[in-house]
Each structure stands twice: as C-alpha cells, then as structure tokens.
C-alpha cells in the first residue's frame, strides 16, 4: 500500500474513532455501558463531595491553596449521584461521601481505593421548621410526627432510597415507629441542600437534615435532634479514586482530614474524630 493511500485511510479512520469514542462516553454517562477511566492524574484535582460539605470544603480548599499554592476544585451533589458519576467514568481524584453505603458501593465497583479510606468527621440528624413557625419538641417513641405536621403538612428530606440524608431519615423514622404513619407525607429531594431549601421557602412544614446544614440556613430553626440510637452514626468517609493514587492526591487527602481542616469542620459544627 502506498504512503499516499495509507495517509488517506488514516484520515478517514481517525475521525471515525473520535466519533465512536464520544458516542461511547455519552452512552456510558446515560447508563448504557462502562467507560474506561483515564489513568493519568488531573493537573488540578477534582474532589467529588457530598452536598453537606459545600461550605466547609470551600474554606478548606482556600486554605489548601494558600498553604501549598496548588489549586483544587470541588463538585458537590448527593453522594449517590456522585457515586453513579464515578461509575459512568466521570474524572475525580477523591470521593468524599456522606455515608458508608455509597463509599462501600464505589469500593465494590473497584472505583475507589479502600486502603486510602479515612473517616475524619461525623454529623447529627435534626428536625427543622421555618423560623417563623418553629416550636421546640422532643423526639422519642411517644412523639407523633403526624400530629406535629398537622392535617396537610409535608416533611422534606433527601430521597429515601438513595440520598444519604433520606436514608438516615427513613431509618430514624422507622426506628421510632413513625415511618408507616407519615411516609406519604415525606417529600424526597435530590440532596440535603435541596431539602433544606424546601423548608426555607415554606414549601414544607418541616424537614430532616444534618445539623451543619441547618446551622448555615437563615430562615429555619432546629426544633429537635434525633436520638443517636435511632439511626446509624452519620459518618463521612473519604477515599482516593482508582487511577488517581499519586503523592499529590495523598497529600490533598491528608490535608482534608488533617488538623487545619478539622478546625474548619468544627467551625461548621461537624463532629471531629
């Protein structure tokens, strides 16, 4: 085959391969198949982080850049959504989940590296109301959520089959003997911040969120804290994503779980371990 003919064939094949590669990535993101993860580390690492970590991580990221001169970016969403994005091949250096379930999921799918797992912080589960209607209550097995909500009141939290805050909320309500009584009045949102917004806007009579999210809201008040034994401990495991286990990313993970970061977590009300 002449060099002229070979060059002509390559000119046809290369664009075709590019189109096919783009199509494969699109199908993977839509859930129709796997896509290979790039093995090389990112120049500016991206941390996939639970929505409830937004404010703390933004401050920690600024502190990290100030100390090291290195940039870091964050992508915040429900842990369930982030885990699925990793599964579809979305690039990230570190995954910070709001519960153990979704970190176990990514480990099981060989998406994150179990040996790098750290769990530096925790949180608590609280009941909130719009500030102008807040009335303190005590949550125990004698407390009736149906009476508390009134005839038509809804209670907002995360999606109870996938979003960590929603899973914690359903577990707590079930433990207290309340789930079957009010499950039709539970509004599931795509993240804890979305649930918080529903209560802030008065679109739900109450909400179940993390104490740290309630603390930064302007128009809601905490009316009760759920008993610690009504749900599993709220924990935040962090892990390095497979293919991103570099010295730089280990240093970033160490900073996210180190003393300077812990001081910021404490400022936002997280339980530091």
TrEMBL record:
Domain of life per record: Bacteria
Record key words, sorted: Metal-binding, Signal
CDD domains xref list: PBP2_EcModA
InterPro entries reported in the protein's UniProt record: ModA, ModA/WtpA, TAT_signal
Record has Metal-binding as a keyword: yes
Pfam families: SBP_bac_11
Keyword Cell wall biogenesis/degradation: no
Gene3D superfamilies found in the cross-reference section: Periplasmic binding protein-like II
Family to which the UniProt record says this protein belongs: Belongs to the bacterial solute-binding protein ModA family.
Name of this chain's protein: Molybdate ABC transporter substrate-binding protein
Organism name: Ancylobacter crimeensis
Gene: modA
